[in-house]
UniProtKB/TrEMBL annotation:
Record Pfam families: cNMP_binding
Family matches, as SUPFAM superfamilies: cAMP-binding domain-like
Lineage summary: Bacteria, Pseudomonadati, Bacteroidota, Chitinophagia, Chitinophagales
Signal peptide region: none
Protein name: cAMP-binding domain of CRP or a regulatory subunit of cAMP-dependent protein kinases
UniProt keyword Transferase, yes or no: yes
Organism: Filimonas lacunae
Keywords recorded for this protein, A-Z: Kinase, Transferase
Length: 195
């Protein structure tokens, strides 16, 4: 597999690797192609991989007892995704992960990740930073859901995912900010009229 410049740029934001360390890391990655709506992980399955998106977009979501989807996060190009609870604990997961578009990604298994820590200790720092950033994002998302209006949550979405504002279906953004598609449509139309 050719070196993925996107993933190596992502890593170089946090750690510096020697060429042989980079080659070793890339040798552990497995490429994967997903069709739109293809499911990568289901609730109840154990998450054994971290996913890095080269092109396309993944979403992590749960489904409540009434069948409503609640989007926790998106992963466009250059983002990592996993069911963090399941990946870390190796217990059955709570999220579904699927592709919102045709998506090209690479996977890194939990087993290879642990081996990577031994062979290239700098990766412990890299994945600690990624995990810390994820924890901060989840905490902020929880606080936003508890304290912000739907309009403010939409503005927060726009700040977090600028490339997705006009790319995602309204239904997905509505599920992320926690409103019905009808409410979201009215709210967005009102905001467009105001601007």
């Amino acid at each position: 597999m050719a070196l993925s410049s996107l993933i190596t740029r992502n890593i170089s934001q946090h750690i510096t690797l020697q060429p042989q360390e980079e080659e070793y890391f890339v040798s552990l990655l497995q490429p994967m192609q997903l069709k739109r709506k293809q499911v990568l992980l289901k609730e109840g399955e154990i998450c054994k991989y971290s996913f890095f998106v080269n092109t396309g977009c993944l979403r992590g979501y749960s489904v409540d007892d009434n069948g409503f989807e609640h989007v926790l996060n998106f992963a466009p190009e250059g983002w990592w995704m996993a069911d963090m609870y399941s990946l870390i604990s190796q217990k059955p997961g709570v999220l579904y992960i699927d592709a919102l578009e045709e998506t090209e990604l690479v996977t890194l298994s939990k087993t290879d990740q642990l081996q990577l820590y031994k062979e290239v200790p700098a990766f412990e720092r890299f994945f600690r930073i990624i995990t810390e950033n994820s924890l901060v994002a989840y905490q902020q998302r929880l606080l936003d859901n508890l304290s912000l209006t739907a309009e403010e949550r939409y503005h927060s979405f726009c700040k977090r995912y600028p490339p997705l504002i006009n790319r995602l279906p309204s239904k997905q953004i509505a599920a992320y900010i926690g409103v019905t598609p009808e409410f979201f449509s009215k709210m967005r139309n009102k905001l467009l009229r105001q601007s």
